[in-house]
Design a protein that fits this description.
By secondary structure, this protein is α/β, with parallel strands linked by helices. 17% of the residues lie in helices and 23% in strands. The protein has one domain: NADH:ubiquinone oxidoreductase Nqo5 subunit (Beta Polymerase, domain 2). The protein is globular.
């Protein structure tokens, strides 16, 4: 079984060649990157060809790679590159930085900001593969819909559209799924404010739900940091693990 799974990556490379932009097998999982222009042809082959037979698309999700790899909390001391970034307002994820939030561009460490990721299962061969396709335009992210290949992807694509703003070209009913009617923005994008843009409450005078500007102030709960504190020092020995609070 393990040998068969290890051979899947080689089969993919042999079949699709240069159309696989990147491929790796890590932690027992096989992943490939393909271009949006090749997506439908490759996905159809993965479903239909006997070598692969990926009958099921088990999940689809969007990804926002803005500020990818920037470790906000990786530090042992409160510093401008660690915990204090959130306190001092340098935290990318807590500030609106693009589009309607005020800044034109965002640098990413992957070259492209948005991607759609597909998780496929072959019941016949007991194989799984992850397929990723990047959107070529960060300002208007578009990838082809695979609904004609796996009909069950309908709501998955609607969810990724709702939360990330990825357009699935060819989807017959691409509209919001989780957010409310008239919702503005896409809440899983990293530039979306954590406190949101509006708050909702029931207005007894009007007898209906009303939308109002957010009334709370943004704040960051900073984790405990390592401090040297005499209250935790060992009077008979060196202060090695002092100040865990």
């Amino acid at each position: 079984m393990s040998d068969a799974r290890d051979g899947l990556l080689e089969c993919l490379r042999d079949r699709f060649g240069e159309r696989i932009l990147a491929a790796h097998r890590k932690l027992g999982e096989t992943s490939i990157d393909v271009a949006a222009d090749d997506l439908l042809e490759i996905m159809t082959a993965l479903r239909d060809e006997e070598t692969f037979r990926f009958e099921q698309l088990t999940d689809l999700c969007g990804v926002d790679y803005a500020a990818y790899g920037q470790g906000e909390w990786i530090t042992e001391q409160a510093s401008n590159a660690g915990f204090s970034r959130g306190v001092r307002g340098n935290n990318f994820a807590r500030l609106g930085l693009t589009g309607i939030y005020g800044v034109d561009t965002i640098e990413t460490n992957t070259g492209r900001r948005f991607a759609a990721v597909y998780h496929l299962l072959s019941v016949t061969h007991n194989h799984r593969v992850r397929v990723r396709v990047y959107c070529s335009d960060d300002n208007f992210p578009v990838v082809p819909s695979v609904i004609d290949i796996w009909a069950g992807v309908n709501w998955f694509e609607r969810e990724a559209f709702d939360l990330y703003g990825i357009i699935f070209d060819g989807h017959p009913d691409l509209r919001r799924l989780l957010t409310d009617y008239g919702f503005i923005g896409h809440p899983f994008r990293k530039d979306f404010p954590l406190i949101g843009n509006v708050e909702v409450r029931y207005n007894e005078e009007k007898g209906r739900v009303v939308y109002e500007p957010v009334s709370i102030e943004p704040r960051v709960l900073v984790p405990r940091v390592v401090r040297h504190d005499s209250r935790y020092a060992d009077a008979d020995g060196p202060q090695e693990d002092a100040g865990r609070g």
